[in-house]
Amino acid sequence: MNGKLKIQEIARQTGLSISTVSRVLAGKANTSAEARQRVLACAQQNGILQGLSNGRLMLNNVMVFAPQRAFDVRTDIFYYKVIQGITTALAQHDVRIRYCGLEEQHSDSVLFLEKMSDPLTEAVLIIGIDDEHIHTLAADLNKPCILINCTDRQMRLDSVSPDHQLIGEYSANYLLQQGHSRILNLQCLRRNTMELRLAGIKQAYMRHNIPFDDRQHLVTTSGFGSEEAEQAITAFINSVTDRAQLPTAILAGGDYMAVGAVNALKKMHISVPGHISVMSTDGFNLAEIHDVPLTSVHVPRDELGAEAIALLQRRMLRPDAPPSNMLLHGRLAVRASVKRLSQNKVSPAVSTHDHRLYDA
């Protein structure tokens, strides 16, 4: 059956005009919600939706919920760029985007329900909101909903996020492979995503048979700013009485935290990477610090918007498909802020390569 016959058959079965059916299947905005629902239901019954997966998004309005800071590039460049990615992904579709600010935790559920119950809210994107009550409400309201950089623990909603745990493990593993065993992890743990990254870091230590000691290997901050990171690194370095036990590398949770770390080391006349290497898990905001090119693992950011729209399209076309959690990998950018140590300078805490273990 060719495309024209499909449209004619759907028009006959739904009682709608051929032009209305054509506009719905093309994702045009000038169709009613009732008409779209009838056309899509009929198309699904006739098994012809599969060929539309790369076509237009078949809705007119999308609501985006995010922390208020996400709408200002000066306060949260990461989420601001995620929203730009959404806008770019929707540019090819005739879709209107509306926005609403919510707190990450203890969100305003009344405001959320008000926006969700608006007839103009046909589909929802929720960015960085960890409030499980909001996730439950979104699932109960049964509108197409995609989570971005947060997880529905009830497994009822689709989500897309960077693979924070694997990114943490990969970053720490890279430093360990470069011969660094005394790594200081400079992390902000205010969100579950950062806890996942730390879990990955600890997994890398475990794989290399190195015990992870919070007192030696972890410094936490309340935010991702450079000033707080500088103060934290300064305090840690000053607390180390045996200079031979100083870290050989610092793994920062973001570029601006890496700036703070380098600033602190520079003021104490500790060279980077000559004495201490510095690595970041971010990699978008700064290519170098004080003329030192920054080695980093790029955390997916711009791609999140495009993948969220692809998931939304899948949900529209397959409303009964099981919810999925898409995890995006990071990408290593090797520059000059990490020094490779000779293997005779470091040794694993425990070695399992003694062949006598296997003697009969």
How are the SSEs ordered, and which strands pair?
Elements (H helix, E strand, L loop, with lengths): L2 H12 L3 H8 L7 H13 L15 E6 L10 H14 L5 E6 L7 H9 L5 E5 L4 H10 L3 E4 L9 E5 L1 H14 L5 E6 L3 H16 L6 H4 E4 L4 H14 L9 E4 L2 H13 L9 E6 L5 E2 L2 E2 L1 E4 L3 H16 L7 E4 L2 E3 L27
Parallel strand pairs: 1-2, 1-3, 3-4, 4-5, 5-13, 6-7, 6-8, 8-9, 9-12
Antiparallel strand pairs: 10-11, 12-14
Helix pairs in contact: 1-2, 1-3, 2-3, 4-12, 5-6, 7-8, 10-11
Summarize the main sheet: 6 strands, parallel
Straight-line distance between termini:
71 Å
Rg, rounded, reads 25 Å
- Computed structural class: alpha/beta
Q: Overall 3D geometry? A: elongated
- Side-by-side strand order of the widest sheet: 2-1-3-4-5-13
Task: Summarize the helix and strand pattern as letters.
Answer: HHHEHEHEHEEHEHHEHEHEEEEHEE
Tell me the β content.
15-25%
Measured as a percent range, the helix fraction is 25-40%
Low-pLDDT residue intervals, each spanning 5 or more residues: 346-360
Secondary structure tally, helices: 12
Mean pLDDT: 88
Number of strands: 14
Domain HTH lacI-type: 5-47
GO molecular function: DNA-binding transcription factor activity; transcription cis-regulatory region binding
Keywords: DNA-binding, Repressor, Transcription, Transcription regulation
Pfam families: LacI (PF00356), Peripla_BP_3 (PF13377)
